[in-house]
UniProtKB/TrEMBL annotation, chain A:
Protein name: Carbohydrate ABC transporter membrane protein 2 (CUT1 family)
Main location: membrane
Regions crossing the membrane: 12-34, 68-92, 104-125, 137-158, 179-201, 237-257
A Gene Ontology BP annotation from the UniProt entry: transmembrane transport
Pfam families documented for this protein: BPD_transp_1
Alphabetized Gene3D superfamilies for the sequence: MetI-like (1.10.3720.10)
Organism of derivation: Paenibacillus cellulosilyticus
Alphabetic keyword roster: Cell membrane, Membrane, Transmembrane, Transmembrane helix, Transport
Alphabetized CDD domains for the sequence: TM_PBP2
From TrEMBL, chain B:
Membrane topology qualifier: Multi-pass membrane protein
CDD domains, sorted: TM_PBP2
Pfam families: BPD_transp_1
Species assigned in the record: Paenibacillus cellulosilyticus
Keyword Cell membrane assigned: yes
GO CC terms, sorted: plasma membrane
The protein, known as: sn-glycerol 3-phosphate transport system permease protein
Location(s) in or outside the cell: Cell membrane
């Protein structure tokens, strides 16, 4: 490859591409550090001349972003834990137990992966409203507590665990419950990590459902909050972007810490296909 | 219970206790029964949640699509296929379908080709490439909400960076989101960027799965990088590419957030994609019956795409 394509040219092309892909995020970070005057200047500055960290304090006065962040953290963490519990239990049953109707139930679980969530929103909205759960944490959390994707991911992993492990545990007189808690779960940390990253991001980034069922500032989540920022009758772009940066920060952290986990989760589907 | 009890207790007690235990747990059918029970306890939480939030809503969607509802979503009466015939006689519904197909055509090929180029450029094991792999994966963690708001400002007609870059090239500014000719293209540009991370991750994992020996023997045979890529790596990558095409088409049919934030379906319905019109029908016009009918149309389209993918996967297994 080297002979035809000198390394320097290769890296220059890569750097230009990387800059282009990252540009919207870099722009958001740069603008979030500018003063109000600098942010609305034309021609625009690419790099802020002074680092104005006060924006990250002032944005809390513009919209109740602290409440949004707190709400979304709560919802995301509870959904993450819930999905880990329900998916790992269901996955264990599918991977390691024999029971009546196993194939049929597995097909039913897989079918939920094919039904796009958008198709079910109208009845789900009516259900949640019927239970008087609009504008509540339950309404944001409960519909997402089970995940067929997570069940599938963990089932694949559980099935790859060595059979000797299960035979040895059986010999020692362990039942399914003991095997599940003290052998399978501790050995499955990588797959559980993948599902944790996924389910957290899924809830942190959720847009349509929170938009439908929340309507007070007290219950709004970050993604709705951030889209409210653009409607503010304001030219304070620096504050708006300070808000955006606060909202995308956990996602960027997840990427830096969990890229491997994310890649594993995505390729589970791709390698099947 | 255990051996310690056995040795301590009197013989006639032992005889009374053990048969009961045997019958409960140690017989084959008892074991099977217990395993069945335990399995359903393990599946229970997921099953109950899926029943309430997936299977019941699917049935309810069909039910609602055959009825008319009042403004609060309560069923007024049986409507037969009226909701569907209303849809198929409504130019707005066909406009929505047309916009969605255009949107898929604008976003899917561009998104995959760009990601393929980036994956080919950054494919390799050298340490210096890690940072680029990170950069190209970046959009995958960003939500449709925050991405749309960032792009909203990039598209800003007078202060936005895109028009500033155009002015540097001495081109006249574009009314990205307001001009009906440009709005769908603008939403598509933003969507291509947003999906780039996912496409890139899938394609570069696919490339990494191709054994090094194939590359080496090809370059020994004198294949240049372009021939190597076009004639050897690309065909080997075709299952991954096919998977990605289907998944991308499905996700383009599910697009909502960027349209709601950037254009709200406008100008002149030029960006009113299918999910957005379902949302509008049900939650802005409060017509839950026709909204459900549209949702079922979406369901049929997506199920067909999924089946095509399964058929393909099956074929692939047969040939191997």
């Amino acid at each position: 490859m080297r002979r035809y394509f000198p390394a320097t040219v290769h890296y220059i092309v890569l750097t230009i591409c990387a800059f282009a892909v990252m540009y919207p995020v870099l722009y958001a970070i740069a603008t979030s550090l500018m003063s109000m005057g600098e942010a609305s200047m034309y021609p625009p500055h690419v790099i802020p001349h002074h680092f104005n960290l006060r924006n990250f304090i002032d944005v809390f006065d513009l919209v109740p972003i602290a409440t949004f962040i707190g709400n979304t953290f709560l919802v995301s963490i509870v959904v993450m834990l819930g999905q880990l519990i329900t998916s790992s239990m269901a996955a264990y049953a599918f991977a390691r137990m024999n029971f009546k109707g196993k194939n049929l139930l597995f097909a039913a679980f897989m079918a939920t992966m094919m039904i796009p969530w958008e198709v079910t929103i109208i009845p789900n909205y009516l259900t949640i409203r019927g239970w008087d759960w609009l504008d509540s944490y339950q309404g944001l959390i409960v519909p997402f507590l089970a995940a067929s994707f997570g069940t599938f991911l963990l089932r694949q992993f559980f099935m790859q665990l060595p059979t000797e492990l299960f035979e040895a545990a059986r010999m020692d007189g362990c039942g399914h419950v003991r095997i599940f808690f003290s052998h399978v779960l501790p050995l499955s940390r990588p797959a559980i990590g993948t599902l944790a990253v996924y389910s957290f991001l899924q809830m942190w980034n959720a847009y349509l459902w929170p938009l439908l069922i929340t309507n007070s500032d007290r219950m709004r989540t970050v993604q709705i909050g951030v889209s409210m920022l653009q409607h503010q009758e304001t030219t304070q772009w620096n504050l708006v972007f300070a808000g955006i940066v606060l909202v995308i920060l956990p996602s960027l952290l997840m990427l830096a810490l969990g890229l491997k986990q994310l890649v594993r989760g995505m390729t589970v589907g791709a390698l099947k296909g | 219970m255990n051996r310690l009890d056995d040795t301590l207790h009197l013989p006639h007690e032992k005889v009374q206790v053990r048969p009961a235990q045997l019958r409960g747990a140690r017989t084959i059918s008892g074991l099977k029964w217990r395993e069945n029970l335990l399995a359903y306890i393990f599946l229970g939480p997921s099953l109950i949640l899926f029943m309430i939030f997936f299977f019941y809503p699917m049935i309810q969607s069909v039910y609602l699509s055959l009825h008319s509802t009042d403004l609060t979503g309560r069923v007024n009466g049986f409507a037969g296929l009226d909701n569907f015939s209303y849809l198929f006689n409504n130019h707005l519904f066909f406009n929505g379908l047309k916009v969605t197909v255009y949107f898929a055509l604008l976003t899917v090929p561009t998104g995959i080709i760009l990601a393929l180029i980036l994956a080919a450029l950054s494919n390799g094991k050298s340490k210096g490439l890690t940072i680029f792999q990170f950069a190209f994966s970046l959009p995958v963690v960003l939500s449709v909400g925050s991405s749309s708001v960032i792009w909203m400002f990039l598209f800003h007609p007078s202060l936005g960076m895109l028009n500033y870059f155009l002015s540097l090239l001495h081109l006249s500014p574009i009314n990205w989101l307001v001009d009906p000719k440009w709005a769908l293209l603008s939403v598509s540009i933003m969507t291509v960027w947003m999906n780039l991370g996912f496409n890139y991750i899938i394609l570069s994992s696919g490339l990494r799965g191709i054994p090094d020996e194939i590359r080496e023997s090809a370059s020994i045979d004198g294949a240049g990088p372009l021939r190597l890529f076009g004639q050897i790596l690309l065909p080997l990558l075709s299952p991954t590419l096919f998977f990605l095409v289907i998944v991308s088409v499905i996700s383009s049919f599910q697009a909502f957030g960027q349209v709601n934030i950037l254009t709200h379906g406008g100008p002149m319905n030029s960006t009113s994609v299918l999910v957005f019109s379902i949302y509008q029908e049900a939650f802005e016009n409060f017509r839950f019956g026709t909204g459900s009918a549209q949702a079922l149309v979406l369901f049929v389209i997506i199920i067909m795409l999924t089946l095509i993918q399964f058929k393909w996967a099956e074929k692939k297994v047969h040939y191997q």
